[in-house]
Write a structure and sequence with these properties.
The chain has one domain: Isochorismatase-like (Rossmann fold). The longest helix is centred in the last third of the chain and has 14 residues. With 209 residues, the chain is α/β, with parallel strands linked by helices. The two termini are 12 Å apart. It has five helices and eight strands. Pfam families: Isochorismatase (PF00857). This is nicotinamidase.
């Protein structure tokens, strides 16, 4: 049985390097921790948001974000972010080239889809991205998760993988950054309640393994 390290959306769009998109404090500083985590694994997976500029959920101003949408696969409004070909789409410093990963998932490409987790293209979780199936094909039993942001895409990806019952899921908070203290706390509570191991450091992850 194998271990996979999953780098969830470690893109400049979610860091202070792109202040007009969706910056997460210190989001650009987790590259080295993700690299340390990957050393514990047999496989390394990258997930990236890849959103069109004309997505149905796009609003122009940050103050217009987080308004509910009456759409089955786009629940909230957001400013444009992670558009392929822009700086925001790029991965953060210190990470290897995309071609050095063993598997890559691009999500949210369709203009009417805005998934958070890496396992499904749609919020209804009917259309697989192939991540679960790929992990199974590699006999992965344990997944180590880090990335951006703790309280959105990291949490959702971890919960989706845990829900399969196929993997031991470990979230490494040292390799994550989140949006706000309260929502990070809530995300950690939800993950622990689901049976996910939430660790504060790569050393703690190593001890679990």
């Amino acid at each position: 049985m194998s271990i996979a390290a999953i780098d969830v959306d470690p893109q400049k769009t979610f860091t202070p390097l792109c202040p007009n998109e969706l910056p997460v404090g210190e989001g650009d500083t987790i590259g080295s921790e993700l690299n340390q985590q990957a050393k514990l694994a047999n496989y390394r997976v990258l997930t990236k948001d890849a959103h069109p500029h004309n997505a149905i959920w796009v609003v122009k101003a940050h103050e217009d974000m987080l308004s509910p949408l009456d759409h089955p696969n786009a629940d909230l409004t957001w400013v444009s972010h992670a558009v392929p070909g822009t700086t925001g789409f790029e991965t953060i410093p210190d990470l290897p080239p995309v071609t050095d990963y063993d598997h890559v998932i691009w999500k949210g490409i369709e203009p009417d889809l805005h998934p958070y987790g890496a396992c499904y293209h749609d919020l209804q979780e009917k259309l697989s991205t192939g991540l679960i199936e790929w992990l199974q094909s590699k006999d992965v039993s344990t997944v180590l998760i880090g990335g951006l942001a703790t309280d959105y895409c990291v949490k959702t990806t971890a919960l989706q993988l845990q829900a399969t019952g196929l993997f031991i899921v470990i979230v490494n908070l040292a390799a994550c950054r989140g949006i706000a203290a309260e929502t990070i706390k809530q995300a950690c509570h939800e993950m622990k309640e689901a049976g996910i191991r939430v660790c504060s450091s790569t050393e703690a992850v190593k001890a679990l393994l």
